[in-house]
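Let us work through a complete example step by step.
Step 1: write down the sequence.
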Amino acid sequence: MKVIKIIIISLLLLFPLVSSAQFIGIGAQYADAKDKGNDFQFAANVSFPTWHKKNPLNTFIASGIDYTGGSSPVAGLNIKPIQITSFLSESLFNKNKATILVGCDAGYLFNFRHGKDGIIITPNVYFDYKFFFVKSGFDFNVTGGEHQFFVRAGFSFGMGTLKSFVKTEIW
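Step 2: predict the structure and record it as tokens.
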């Protein structure tokens, strides 16, 4: 019952932000947790920009929510208030229909099955083209001392989708 309350409260509080999301994805994730085995799991994510000003590092800050359902030690509802992301170069972003992002996320994981709740740091690489995305990274549960490598793939509505229909520029 506690889990359901946390999910409902989180969704209601974040609904206005989620409705303006720029990256929405649903798919599957393969997680390889050292000494804990491998796991395929359902994955869903939403993120939205919170700071997006022109800067020499081609970087923006976003916030979001990830959910992974599975038995890996770093699975559950991950609320990420800070996602520092770079699109590497303006010309790469503006002249390509695909989107490539490199970043590092920080958030708090509510682990519903097993493992520990805690602060999660995730360096990652994101790629999308039209309606498909792939994200790969490494989850560190700083509080619980657990970690895992993951590859997530699925369907998305993100920058790749928008860039397919209209000419998009980052700034």
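Step 3: interpret the result. Strands lie at 23-33, 37-51, 59-69, 76-86, 99-110, 118-129, 132-141, 146-157.
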